Every structure is written in structure tokens, then in C-alpha cells.
């Protein structure tokens, strides 16, 4: 009984059950229930203020395209919104604040159509370098390299056992991990730059770009694979362990940390190659590419899953080269800032 209760609470917390109830309130589909000790008959203005903030939050966290045409607010809603101190007006699921003067100019695609994404802009898109060598490998020679290589190979065992050939799920889960090292490295270099009054040679930006690129891989995979509640729970656990572990390793030895990432990227190339084999054999359906991927990688409108996996694999090969290079710089007894960073390509 108690096991069932724990499972139910975990499932709802991970799947955002409670939060969805809040969001449902924000979009006006339900009233607040007494679950949180808030009576259903709470003040309308308070509920509306809360709703506006949550809708804004939902918009910011969303990777979905913004609706090109928003319905005008209803008279009643507009009246309530005008009572808010910041004169926030709700339009569809978008929040506009006239008080802070924050607004996004209208942006167009090259073909003149409206740019639908808030999470990235046209100047952040790029065409992946498909000519990159996928077979490069850093042969581990030193003790530290061997530790890095063996660590990554060991980490692959539970991954293979858990996911087997479910490459969509596997890729989605691994991207939640892959986006961590760039952020940790970028953050630590940022703090170092502040502490030492030194430029970073562009490496802060390069590593943060890598983290963002990996996150876009995840945002793309999530359009193709819907994670189950226990997979979300696994992500929480793995992120907690991996973030702290990688943070400690990067503090102690950036040389080792970058080498580990280099080998992780080599494994990612292998996984995506297997994914492509399953698409080519028909074991995985070659569905249409998600809209977010078409815009992010400047793919043709009729691009497919195979095209998306091909460009993601090319990105991983680039991350492999950047991280092995970063480790090599440390091996030469130098700091990253002494070698120009590969900024501008993810
Ligand atoms: Fe990735
Ligand atoms: Fe990567």
C-alpha cells in the first residue's frame, strides 16, 4: 500500500502532475483546487496575477513555436489584466509587459515567413559540417587517459543493458547528461576569469555554446520520444550524481575532465551510427524531422529523422575534437586561454 502511494507521488511529481494543475489554472481551464490549501473561491485578482506569471514561465520554458497569430483577449480577461500593477496583458499564451519595455522585435526567416521560436534565433542556426571525420580516436597512452577511457567504457555497460537498441530513448537520456560538462566547464572558467582578472581566450563561450548545442539535441529528441515518468526520475538521479561528480573532476583536473568528455563524444558518435543503421534497415521509422530541427540546422523542409540524426552525429564529432584538443592543451602544461577557442561552431 505504502509502496503504491510512494510510486504514485513520485510519478505525479516527475510528470509535473501538480504543476500541470497550476498551468491548467493559468490557461483558465480549471480553478485552483484545495490540494495546496488554497480555497477554490480565492480572490480572482490573486489567481489572475499568479496565472500571468505562470503563463510567462511556461512560455519561457517552452521550445514550442510561438503562435503566429494570437487571438485577442476577451473583454473580461482584458478588464482583469488592466487591474494588475504592471499592466501585463495576456495575449493567447504570451505575456506582454508594457512596464519593463521588454519585447522581441518581429523576426523573419530568409523566406520572409515569421520566425516562430523564442528559444533560439536565426543567427544561432547553422549547417552542420557533414564532412567531419567520424572515425578519429584519441588512443589512450598516459595513465590518466586510460582512466578516462575505462571510465567511459564502464559507463556504457549499464546504458547498453538498460536501453538495448532503443536508440531514441537512449539518445534522449544521454543528451540530458551530455549538456552538463560544457556548462560546468564554462561556469568554472567564468569564475576563474573573474578571480584572476584574465580573459578566457573564448573558451567560456565555446563551452557554453557546446552545452546549448547539446540541450538543443535534447529538445529535438524530446519532440520524437516522450519520456516516461520513471525515465524522468532516472534523469533527476543521474543529473544529481553526474553534475557533482563532473564538477569535482573539473576542479581537480580539467585535463581529465575534457578527456572524459572527448571519449563520451566518441561513444555518442557510435550510438548515433547504430541509430542510423536501424533507420536504414527500417527497424526505426524514418519519420519527418521535427520543425525545431529543420530551423536549427537549416535543413530542407522535407528533412527526415535520418537527416536529423546525421547532423547531430556531426555535432558530436565536433565536440569530440574540441574536448580532446582542450585536454591536449592542458597536457602541454598550458591553460586553455593560451589557445584560441573554436567559437562560432557548436
Ligand atoms: Fe548531443
Ligand atoms: Fe556532444
UniProtKB/TrEMBL annotation:
It comes from the Eukaryota. InterPro entries: AOX (IPR002680), AOX_sf (IPR038659). Its cofactor is Fe cation. Its main location: mitochondrion. Residues 64-85 are annotated as: Disordered. Gene3D superfamilies: Alternative oxidase (1.20.1260.140). GO terms for cellular component: mitochondrial inner membrane; respiratory chain complex. Binds 2 iron ions per subunit. CDD domains: AOX (cd01053). One of its GO terms (biological process) is alternative respiration. Keywords: Electron transport, Iron, Membrane, Metal-binding, Mitochondrion, Mitochondrion inner membrane, Oxidoreductase, Respiratory chain, Transit peptide, Transmembrane, Transmembrane helix, Transport. Residues 76-85 have a biased composition (Basic and acidic residues). It catalyses: 2 a ubiquinol + O2 = 2 a ubiquinone + 2 H2O. Its EC number is 1.10.3.11. One of its GO terms (molecular function) is metal ion binding. It is a multi-pass membrane protein. Signal peptide: none annotated. It is found in: Mitochondrion inner membrane. Belongs to the alternative oxidase family. Homodimer; disulfide-linked. This is Ubiquinol oxidase.
